[in-house]
């Protein structure tokens, strides 16, 4: 069985860059990132070369190892070039296998540590916020992620997203509103669909001749999940629902008093 | 990709009448308005108030 040793070596040399790319951003941001693969690959390879150089430098300066770059290139070239590497180099590998594993462990470990450091710096100093001086470097091409996560709005963690979407149907349009539960992307990073809970809808034509304070025209949609595809809506409005701390804890309540709306003027939804 | 939904909202939604009230608040509540819900956490055996507020997505 022939094993493409040069390809395997090359993979181990560039893999730290892709490891860094994978762990340097939150999974949500990574999934929403629309950066072309070519740009990502170039960044990853460049970073891998830097990490390899740093670990190699540390190994030679602090541990006394010498890098035989010419022999390494011959091994990566394969074929006759690999055969021209002096045999005692291979014999040294037989006698000292751990430095090789140590080198690759060092590059992978350094890449992972840099990725964690980057995530911490971005999170701690909001470096991906549009107003940050470093946003050009740290901000990713993931606009929907930044919108729905509240990062662009400066909203703390835990804010829930309320979405209103206008959906045209035949001769009239409906306004759907609800709590955003889930959203999915197309392969190009654009929104593919949103999934709402606690959803309601109303006809936009019901607005005619009615005051803004009249809310009875909304009616709830049965079920726990409402899926709306991006091809179905024309506009999307986003606001956030945040939890504020109550001033005092409530005493035990009777069953018929479990729900209490503080705003006595709030009208009830019309049942459909 | 999952969006954030806090556990308190799940508790509100577990009660049919609270769920209806939440739908109404989401649909008709004005920006920066708050509404208080009283929920019962069966797991902890306590009842408490939860105040929710609608805020705009300011860039």
End-to-end Cα distance of chain A, whole Å, is 71 Å
Mean pLDDT of chain B: 84
Radius of gyration of chain B: 12 Å
Spatial arrangement of strands, main beta sheet of chain B: 1-2
Low-confidence stretches of chain A: 248-272
Largest inter-chain contact set:
A-B, 62 and 45 residues
Using the alpha-carbon principal axes, give the shape of chain A.
elongated
User: Which H/E pattern describes the elements of chain A?
Assistant: HHHHHHHHHEEEEEE
Number of strands of chain B: 2
The secondary structure category of chain B is alpha+beta
* Major sheet details of chain A: 6 strands, antiparallel
So how many helices of chain B? Answer: 2
Characterize the largest beta sheet of chain B: strand count, sense, and whether it forms a barrel. 2 strands, antiparallel
Radius of gyration of chain A: 29 Å
Shape of chain B: globular
Percent range of helical residues of chain B:
25-40%
What is the strand tally of chain A?
6
Helix content range of the residues of chain A, please?
40-55%
The protein's oligomeric status is heterodimer
Termini of chain B, distance in Å? Answer: 22 Å
């Amino acid at each position: 069985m022939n094993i493409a040793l040069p390809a395997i070596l090359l993979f181990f040399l560039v893999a730290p860059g892709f490891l860094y790319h994978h762990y340097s951003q939150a999974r949500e941001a990574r999934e929403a990132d629309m950066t072309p693969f070519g740009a990502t690959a170039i960044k990853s390879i460049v970073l891998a070369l830097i990490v390899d150089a740093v670990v190699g430098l540390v190994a030679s300066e602090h541990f006394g190892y010498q890098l035989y770059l010419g022999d390494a290139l011959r091994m990566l070239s394969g074929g006759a070039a690999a055969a021209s590497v002096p045999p005692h180099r291979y014999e040294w590998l037989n006698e000292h296998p751990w430095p090789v594993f140590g080198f690759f462990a060092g590059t992978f470990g350094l890449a992972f540590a840099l990725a964690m450091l980057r995530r911490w710096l971005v999170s701690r100093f909001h470096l991906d916020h549009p107003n940050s001086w470093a946003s050009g470097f740290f901000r990713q091409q993931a606009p929907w992620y930044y919108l729905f996560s509240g990062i662009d709005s400066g909203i703390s963690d835990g804010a829930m997203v309320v979405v209103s979407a206008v959906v045209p149907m035949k001769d009239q349009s409906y306004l759907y509103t609800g709590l955003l539960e889930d959203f999915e992307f197309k392969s190009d990073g654009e929104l593919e669909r949103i999934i709402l809970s606690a959803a309601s809808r109303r006809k936009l034509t019901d607005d005619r001749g009615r005051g803004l304070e009249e809310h009875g025209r909304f009616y709830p949609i049965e079920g726990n999940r409402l899926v709306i595809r991006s091809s179905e809506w024309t506009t999307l409005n986003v606001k956030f629902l945040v939890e504020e701390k109550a001033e005092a804890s409530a005493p035990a309540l009777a069953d018929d008093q479990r729900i209490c709306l503080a705003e006595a003027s709030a009208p009830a939804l019309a049942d459909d | 990709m999952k969006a954030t939904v806090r556990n308190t909202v799940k508790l509100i939604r577990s009660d049919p009448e609270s769920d209806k009230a939440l739908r109404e608040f989401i649909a008709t509540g004005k920006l920066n308005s708050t509404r208080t819900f009283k929920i019962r956490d069966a797991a902890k055996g306590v009842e408490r108030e939860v105040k929710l507020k609608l805020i705009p997505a300011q860039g």
